[in-house]
Amino acid sequence: MNLQKLSRLDLNLLVALQALLEERSVTRAAKRLFITQPAMSRVLQRLRQQLDDPLFTRSGNELVATPKAQDLQLRLPAMLDGILAMISVGVFDPASHVGEITIAVPEFFAISLVSRLIESLSVVAPGVVLSVSSDTDSVERELAEGILDFAIDIDKPLGMDIEATHLVNYSPSIWMREGHPLAEQHSISLDEILEYPFVQYYLLIAKRVSARTDARFDKTLRKLGRKRTKALVTKQFMTAMETISRSNCLMVAARYGHTIEENTYPIVRKGFPDDLPHEQTITLVLLQHKRTFESPIHCWLVSQITGVIMNKEAQKVG
Fold this sequence. Notes:
Blueprint: H1 3-7, H2 11-23, H3 26-32, H4 37-51, E1 56-59, E2 62-65, H5 67-87, E3 99-104, H6 107-124, E4 128-133, H7 139-144, E5 150-154, E6 162-170, E7 172-177, H8 190-193, E8 198-201, H9 216-223, E9 230-234, H10 237-245, E10 250-254, H11 259-264, E11 267-271, E12 282-289, H12 296-317
Parallel strand pairs: 3-4, 3-5, 8-9, 8-10
Antiparallel strand pairs: 1-2, 5-12, 6-12, 7-10, 7-11
């Protein structure tokens, strides 16, 4: 985009050109814009210089548009309407908004959130398209650069330009299949769970996964001088669920309910062993960059996302 050339063009000239195209008269166009006829004549002269075209020829009392002016007549209204919409202050109407919103969210949470969100958006904001992924090299950088509009992640320290809205708390737990040797026990110990291999499922948004990357669980074990055996490392929730449902593998995940695993997989969830120190709750937050704080569509979507989660929590309590 040639910004230097655009900077030399006065927006008022385009407004005057639109009036001239509609009125086909310098006098009528001047009255339309509440300026004098000589002033409008000077504006027309500037337009001719800026656009390097006569724009109009005279036929009696009427102005006849040149081919270039005719082409501008087709494109100029949409351009001016777009500028007007951009600067207009009014009530945001989700029903008329058209655009794409990009959001990074871990798959385990997207499964229970996105379908409910789309169910609502398809009715009240049919022009909004959600692009959802769980792959990002840097949430903070991609929010700042506008690659992402939102991200849902575990609450952790971030830069001052990132705002975090609380979504939900969940408790870590040990997942296993029904019929697992530990499934019928009222409580489980650290020694007992370390006898079995683990699926390491990435709760965090991540571009790549590696068995060399330690989760919080691994770091806690290391402090105790212990270590677990990993059979699978993945960020694919369905792959993790299939694996633990078909083997004796265990998985550290959330006690927060997910419809997909409750309805599809015979899974048993156990609280952490009493002899294993752990955080009682882990918080998920909705992240956005300060550039979107005042954006009507972003503010509205924050309310929609939090509303979906509040409704889901209310249904669980009910």
